[in-house]
Design goal:
It contains one helix and 30 strands. The chain is mostly beta strands and about 475 residues long. The longest helix is centred in the C-terminal third of the chain and has 4 residues.
């Protein structure tokens, strides 16, 4: 396996001899676990065959074995080469144009020089804008489409591993959202498509907040989606079924199907297919809007699997105008407790400086919220990170984070289920058009590490300390 972590299509070579099995088994060890694939070799000769696309890094590998399930000495298993080709497909559910909003998407090449192709679709799945560009290694290119007023979705394909973020700008408002990757690729807590997705936090006229969820069908045929509104304690449950969503199409669902006002809870989104067609993969993003003063819009990605252990790198209690709220949803089938461990940024003594807090009896599908401003063991001015872990073995959770700011609304994001040795930021700025970027790094390894940050100009040239 190459040393650079990234998204790779894995291809196996079927030789022209001794390849007659109908069920050649392959096992792929990758960053998200282990997957299996099967190839019918009978009739193939000197051909490369794809067995899927995965996020992989040094130490990951592919192997085969002869347990095909066929009769002994009846078939031959042909084994030759394996190759790893960097690939990328990224989905963005929400491109906003008009009504005071304008979206620009930034595409970064994380591998070598890449050809990137982007397509922007309307709600019916009809392409309204497209383009191609060559992106040199480590460069980041902004794109904007001349679209009519409306809401759209985006698909970016690349010949190398690409990262995509969408910056949506409004009057004194803005949001920055990362894209989704196909099923089986990426972190399933915040960046992976699936036939079932979860959203921990959804509101209907709750403290002037109203949520909507944008759902995009990234499959090849139409599908419908059951939207389950799962109320917190004291709030009702409701199910709403969307109209047919064409391939590439999108639909937005707000809180209007919920008979109760105000309402607060979580979502489960289940793609069901249409007629005899199977369920199609979807991606979804939740957007929170308010008409209160100040007016703001914040968004976060829906979750596919979640994880029994997740991390929040940046949390605040009355620090720099920020206060953090966490909403934890149980994605499992058993009731569980969840332990939240709050550690200050520059922690040196985990046993004395980190504070545990327990959410009790978190029921399947349900969500509970925690406001850091209500935690007495955290002092005003505290800033740090949070580790969240379920106490019942294997029960996954998803976490939506709101870092609210007194004057401009703040921002939302999804907690991460795992870290990585390499992390890419497609967009960063220093005093550019009034924008400066900050980022927070959380060590999840259990040992002291050194992190090196490399900065690149938009054209891919690396900046040095002298620049």
């Amino acid at each position: 396996m190459p040393t650079d972590e990234g998204i790779y299509e894995v291809l196996v070579y079927v030789p022209n001899q001794y390849a007659t099995t109908w069920r050649a088994p392959y096992v792929i060890l990758h960053r998200n676990g282990t997957s299996s694939a099967m190839v019918d070799q009978n009739g193939l000769s000197n051909q490369w065959v794809s067995i899927g696309t995965y996020r992989m890094a040094a130490g990951d590998y592919v192997y085969t074995h002869d347990a095909t399930g066929e009769g002994s000495n009846q078939r031959w298993l042909g084994v030759d080469n394996v190759k790893f080709v960097r690939r990328s497909t990224t989905y963005a559910p929400l491109i906003n144009q008009g009504n005071g909003w304008s979206s620009t998407f930034y595409v970064r090449s994380n591998g070598g020089d890449a050809r990137a192709t982007f397509n922007v679709f309307d709600s019916s799945g009809v392409r309204q804008c497209y383009g191609t560009a060559m992106i040199t290694a480590h460069s980041s290119v902004p794109f904007a489409c001349p679209l009519l007023n409306g809401v759209y979705s985006l698909v970016v394909d690349g010949s190398q591993d690409l990262s995509v973020v969408v910056y949506t700008d409004g009057a004194a408002r803005g949001s920055l959202d990362n894209g989704f990757l196909p099923q089986g690729v990426g972190d399933a807590t915040f960046e992976q498509a699936g036939t079932v997705l979860y959203a921990p936090a959804f509101y209907k006229n709750y403290f002037s907040i109203n949520s909507s969820v944008s759902i995009v069908n990234v499959g090849s045929v139409p599908t419908t989606v059951n939207v389950e509104f799962i109320g917190r304690t004291g709030y009702t449950n409701t199910v709403h079924t969307t109209p047919n969503i064409p391939a590439g199409g999108r639909v937005t669902v707000n809180g209007s199907p919920i008979p109760q006002t105000p309402w607060v809870g979580s979502l489960r989104l289940t793609s069901t297919g249409v007629g005899s067609s199977p369920a199609q993969p979807i991606v979804a993003m939740v957007n929170d809007d308010t008409t209160a003063n100040p007016v703001y819009s914040r968004s976060y990605n829906a979750t596919k699997f979640g994880s029994p252990l997740v991390y929040v790198p940046a949390a605040y209690r009355n620090q720099w105008g920020f206060n953090t709220g966490l909403v934890v949803q149980n994605l499992g089938t058993s009731t569980t407790d969840a332990t939240l461990t709050f550690c200050p940024r520059l922690v040196t003594d985990l046993s004395n400086e980190c504070h545990p807090f327990t959410i009790n009896n978190l029921e399947p599908g349900k969500a509970q919220g925690v406001l850091l401003s209500n935690l007495s063991f955290l002092s005003d001015g505290w800033t740090g990170s949070v580790k969240l872990q379920t106490t019942t073995s294997g029960v996954p959770i998803a976490v939506a984070v709101t870092n609210s700011y007194d004057n401009v609304g703040g921002y939302n994001f999804s907690a991460t289920g795992r870290g990585g040795r390499t992390v890419f930021l497609p967009y960063a700025a220093k005093n550019a058009n009034g924008i400066s970027t900050g980022y927070t790094v959380r060590n999840t390894s259990g040992m002291t590490i050194t992190v090196q940050a490399l900065y690149y100009n938009q054209n891919g040239t690396r900046r040095t300390n002298a620049d």
